[in-house]
Design goal:
The structure holds 2 protein chains of 2 kinds. Chain A is of the alpha/beta class. In chain A, about 40% of the residues lie in helices and about 10% in strands. Chain A is built from 19 helices and 11 strands. Classes of the chains: A alpha/beta, B mainly alpha.
Chain lengths: ~525, ~100
């Protein structure tokens, strides 16, 4: 049984779906195997803030019953019915706590489900639990979680990226085949890069944000986390689509993603190297793996062109004005009145204002406070035009740069992050150094375009995962899946299997079965 | 552009309703000065003629029918509140009247 379970957790979501449909395994077996894995390794990884065993097994049992009943009950099952998934704890769920990684929401239960969660329930995908994150998704290392950092399955002394380090680590550690993330400046893609997994930020508006606790509303996007490109395509098709509960939700259909992941060639496609998104400031091992992927795509028949987006040099600055400005407004609702923690001032008059001040002082961590203050500053009278106004103009310039680049190339390519995973604690006292991790991912959020990160190999100098990022024009998410799936398949052929097969063995039960696949 | 100083941070913290200790203000002032300095160049990036983008994918006139849709019951809305009384959120004094 142990061996069987170890085998089950290593399958992709697509393979699990096929096995479930063929009735080779039951959804309860698959779900239990992942719950066992969580019990076995999450003490080391700390990817989960809450494990939802009972409900997950009940949903799995419903799927098994429908399949056993046959007829219309079985036919109506979604292709991913019974394939379990983890949900980033920024996304609200009925029946499980939602903390956003913050003390201010400790123990809070949402009275409603996010739209993406409703869609998971409709597809009968068992929700394994809620994953760890930097507080309110603010960070690049998951060290800003009020519930302790998540650890990178490749090296437990290193960061799993952030803010969605929990979702990426859960998938990398085979605790879940799929997870949901949110990406405001790279929080899906950068964790994907440093954990050797796949993460996609869809076009802004392609997936409803209703029920994702807002950080920066004009930048936030929910998206898939997985171990294969095809699995992300399958998941984006489950969670995507127009939602009247999100007024920024697009009405365009995004139903060609799985088909795109199965096209299998890039012959004749133009792939653009963004001059400003590699080279200086990027680790040598990252640069080497990036160049290797370029050569492989060229060998596969793609045409590599160089493009320049000169205004990207302002992207980080514009992001650190727009994002905190929106943060300062969005987080005003955590006031000790409607939800979460309330802290009373120790002395002096007991007014609501003083209660707010004491509650927010005790409930928010340092990074959240820094960003609220920074945003309040950028929006204050006298600075608004110079800061927030200028940053919004930069956003226009960056969009124009991307428009020009996409006139020359079908997709753009870059490393996802400038370095591999750094050590826990290494950048915690230097906010600016931490912010630089997202230098290659932020531009997509500012422009609203989709981006995908996939494993590109291990850096020579430290043996840690390197991510390759693909970018496409708004609404052309399908191109990411087409090119991503081809690059993934060429790389896996070169490696002789998935990159995660090279990751160290975790937990107790795996010590005998490790390396068996 | 003026650098951010400790008094600015104290004022901003009051505006944002976050109590801060003297030690926190000292530290935050230093950290924010570094961050503000690094984003300054943004103000020189674009000329007067460049329009601002507030939203990455422009959408206009997103309307719905003016009918009652999804609403929470009072019980649901109050379920996560720190304090409630007779179907209302309960708060300490709104005005500082002693």
């Amino acid at each position: 049984m142990t061996e069987l379970k170890n085998e089950l957790i290593r399958h992709s979501a697509a393979d699990l779906a096929a096995k479930l449909a063929a009735r080779e395994v039951t959804a309860v077996e698959v779900t239990q195997a992942h719950l066992d894995r969580i019990a076995d390794v999450d003490g080391q990884v700390n990817a989960f803030l809450h494990v939802n065993s009972e409900e997950a097994l009940a949903v799995a049992a419903e799927v098994d019953a429908a399949r056993a009943a046959g007829g219309s009950a079985a036919e109506e099952l979604h292709a991913l019915a019974g394939v379990p998934i983890a949900v980033k704890d920024l996304i609200v769920t009925i029946g499980q706590p939602t903390t956003a990684g913050s003390k201010i929401l400790e123990g809070w239960h949402s009275p409603y489900d996010a739209t993406v969660v409703k869609k998971l329930r409709a597809a009968k995908m068992p929700i394994l639990g809620k994953t760890n994150l930097d507080e309110f998704a603010m960070g690049s290392s998951t060290e800003h979680s009020a519930y302790g950092p998540t650890r990178n399955p490749w090296d437990l002394d290193r960061i799993p990226g952030g803010s969605g380090g929990g979702s990426a680590a859960a998938v990398a550690a085979f605790e879940a085949p799929l997870a949901l993330g949110t990406d405001t400046g790279g929080s899906i893609r950068q964790p994907g890069a440093v954990t050797g997994t796949v993460g996609v930020k869809p076009t802004y508006g392609a997936v409803s944000r209703y029920g994702a606790i807002a950080m920066a509303s004009s930048l936030d996007q929910i998206g898939p986390v997985s171990r294969t490109v095809l699995d992300s395509a399958l998941l984006q098709e489950v969670i995507g689509g127009h939602d009247p509960f999100d007024s920024t939700s697009l009405t365009d259909p995004f139903n060609n993603l799985v088909a795109a992941a199965r096209v299998g060639n890039v012959a004749g496609m133009k792939i653009g190297i963004v001059k400003e998104l590699h080279g200086e400031g990027y680790q040598a091992g990252v640069e080497n793996r990036f160049n290797e992927s370029l050569q492989l795509l060229k060998d596969a028949g793609a045409e590599i062109v160089e493009v320049s987006c000169p205004n990207l040099k302002y992207a980080l600055g514009a992001y650190y004005l727009i994002m905190p400005s929106e943060v300062s407004s969005n987080l005003a609702k955590f006031d000790g009145v409607r939800f979460g923690m309330r802290v009373l001032p120790k002395d002096g008059p007991m007014t609501i204002e003083r209660v707010m001040g004491a509650t927010r002082a005790a409930g928010f961590g340092d990074e959240v406070k820094r960003r609220i203050i920074l945003g309040t500053y950028a929006l204050s009278a006298g600075y608004y035009d110079a800061y927030y106004g200028s940053a919004q103009k930069v956003r226009t310039l960056i969009q124009r740069d991307f428009d020009a680049a996409f006139a020359k190339a079908d997709v753009l390519i870059s490393p996802t992050a400038p370095t591999t995973a750094f050590k826990l604690g290494e950048k915690l006292d230097d906010p600016l150094a931490m912010y630089l991790n997202d230098v290659a991912t932020i531009p997509a959020n500012l422009a609203g375009i989709p981006g995908l990160s996939l494993p590109g190999g291990l850096a020579d100098e430290d043996g840690l995962p390197v991510g390759i990022q693909l970018l496409a024009p708004a609404r052309q998410d399908a191109r990411l899946y087409r090119v991503g799936a081809v690059l993934e398949s060429i790389l896996e052929e070169k490696w002789g299997g998935p990159m995660l097969a090279q990751a160290p063995v975790l937990g107790s039960a795996t010590t005998t079965a490790g390396g068996s696949n | 552009m003026a650098a951010i100083n400790r008094d600015d941070v104290a004022h901003l913290a009051r505006l944002a309703h976050i109590e801060m200790s003297a030690e926190e203000l000292d530290r935050m002032a230093v950290e924010l000065a570094v961050i503000v300095d690094s984003v300054k160049s943004v103000s020189e990036a674009a000329g007067e003629d460049v329009p601002a983008t507030s939203h990455p994918i422009p959408l206009t006139n997103v309307f719905r029918e003016d009918v009652v849709g999804h609403t929470f019951t009072a019980e649901q809305a109050l379920s996560g509140a720190p304090d409630a009384f007779e179907n209302r959120f309960k708060v300490p004094a709104i005005l500082d009247e002693g």
